[in-house]
Design the sequence.
């Protein structure tokens, strides 16, 4: 996908490493048409929670649970994008972004089951028009964790009825925007929706019921499959995908059977649990066994797995960090540090036991492991998307750091610049190594509401002053903008401004 905002370098026919920059150092050249974008999500940026006919989502409710979100923060105002969207689109254009990945808020569009709110659709319709006018490809995610509270009150993702409601909502959005939006993602990170939401309780709706979590995972997959079919059936040529959060686990002691078994279980319960059903039409046996051991199972009915394995046009990978695990270490406390009791989200894994490595960490405490990113992309291509012929996109990657605003108002974020450079280099390695990967979206365009961490963790390449709503591009925004508009990553770090 090429946009008018993305200029590609001279005429490379594939990714290469050369000295393409006039007057610059050597550069890693990405293939023509490689998509460069930034990502956000509705509840994290919009605010305007009781405007335009929107009803509460599970996150509005969860933010009111004492201790659930750091400092009692809420998404009530967030980045006020609901009112400042034009300015934000201008900002994206000024950064030379080729694509913008955003999500629509279900309860803005279908405030109650069976009710369609034109005002909600109009908001996104105007946003899409503004993006297209500036040559930015809209990349729409239908569900980024903000289930209408009205549906949670009927059982939420743990209840099979939610599937029909999701398909209805997806169809309504597609009927309104499908003439202009060509890239559709059904769900963002169903692992978080199911397991942080219904087993660990770190995320909305905050339930800690292992069977509900596994049921939620199945219903999310089923909703994804049925919605994919519905969007296809509409005949607009929509390209439909799913975005999953993946990680890399390694054993602290490769010779230890216990460590290997722990790695296998983590991998099954995070990575394979969604990719195997979607690509191969079955749950990983290790996950089924781990669940059975704690007395739970996905509520699979005849025909479900065929629907779930409906062929896709793309898979999105979100990657942030990786871990070394050991059966010997003490269990990690559940994260984030709770002001209320939460549980281990990985149903059937027992306790998470990680061993810290001597590498830089982000403000989330996550290890910076770009080499594992390249490994992961190669593996996804080899084990799932390559054989299925499904193109890959990196739909999220980025880092939180404790950014300081300088006396002159500028925000220099060298650690984020280093993180992005390292991970972009990994993306380039994957592409040159034959991974069928077509684009990269940085998380995030703006500092925003980081779920249970509230506003304390800043992932933006653009700083947001939450008192004044002033947006200030950080150094990382300038670096990323340069990469996005040239499709070249300079390797010697000369491009830092
Ligand atoms: C991902 C989420 C995104 C953001 C980043 C940091 O898991 O999809 O909304 O919170 O993590």
Sequence:
């Amino acid at each position: 996908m090429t946009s008018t905002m993305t200029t590609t370098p001279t005429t490379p026919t594939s990714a290469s490493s050369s000295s393409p920059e006039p007057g610059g150092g050597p550069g890693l050249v990405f293939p023509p048409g490689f998509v460069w974008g930034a990502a956000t999500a509705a509840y994290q940026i919009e605010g305007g929670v009781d405007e335009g006919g929107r009803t509460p989502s599970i996150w509005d409710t969860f933010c009111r649970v004492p201790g659930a979100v750091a400092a009692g923060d809420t998404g009530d105002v967030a980045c006020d994008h609901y009112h400042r969207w034009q300015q934000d689109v201008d900002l994206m254009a000024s950064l030379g972004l080729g694509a913008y990945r955003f999500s629509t808020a279900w309860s803005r569009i279908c405030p109650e089951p069976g009710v369609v709110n034109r005002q909600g659709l109009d908001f996104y319709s105007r946003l899409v028009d503004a993006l297209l006018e500036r040559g930015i490809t809209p990349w729409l995610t239908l569900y980024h964790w903000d289930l209408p509270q009205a549906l949670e009150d009927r059982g939420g993702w743990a209840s099979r009825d939610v599937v029909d409601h999701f398909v209805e909502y997806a169809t309504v959005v597609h009927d309104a925007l499908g003439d202009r939006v060509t890239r559709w993602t059904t769900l963002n990170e169903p692992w978080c929706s199911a397991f942080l939401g219904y087993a660990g309780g770190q995320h909305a709706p905050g339930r800690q019921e292992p069977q509900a979590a596994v049921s939620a995972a199945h219903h999310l997959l089923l909703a994804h499959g049925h919605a994919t079919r519905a969007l296809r059936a509409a005949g607009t040529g929509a390209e439909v995908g799913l975005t999953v959060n993946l990680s890399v686990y390694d054993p602290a002691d490769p010779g230890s059977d216990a460590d290997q078994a722990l790695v296998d279980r983590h991998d099954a319960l995070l990575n394979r649990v969604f990719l195997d059903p979607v690509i191969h039409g079955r749950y990983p046996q290790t996950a089924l066994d781990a669940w059975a051991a704690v007395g739970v199972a996905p509520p699979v009915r005849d025909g479900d797995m065929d629907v779930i394995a409906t062929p896709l046009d793309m898979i999105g990978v979100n990657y942030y960090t990786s871990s070394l695990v050991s059966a010997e270490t003490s269990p990690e406390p559940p994260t984030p540090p709770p002001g209320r009791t939460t549980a281990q989200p990985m149903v059937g894994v027992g306790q998470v036991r990680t061993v810290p490595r001597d590498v830089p960490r982000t403000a989330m405490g996550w290890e910076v492991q770009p080499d594992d990113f390249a490994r992961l992309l190669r593996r996804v291509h080899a084990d799932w998307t390559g054989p299925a012929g499904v193109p890959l996109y990196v739909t999220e990657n980025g880092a939180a750091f404790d950014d300081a605003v300088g006396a002159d108002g500028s925000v220099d974020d060298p650690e984020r610049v280093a993180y992005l450079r390292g991970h972009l280099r990994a993306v380039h390695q994957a592409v040159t190594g034959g991974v069928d990967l077509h684009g990269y979206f940085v998380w995030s365009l703006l500092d925003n509401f980081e779920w249970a961490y509230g506003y304390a963790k800043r992932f933006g390449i653009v700083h947001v002053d939450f008192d004044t709503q002033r947006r200030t591009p950080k150094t990382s925004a300038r670096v990323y903008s340069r990469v996005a508009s040239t499709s070249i990553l300079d390797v010697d770090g000369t491009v830092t401004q």
In short: The two ends are 27 Å apart (CA to CA). Residues 1-13, 19-23 have pLDDT under 50 and may be disordered.
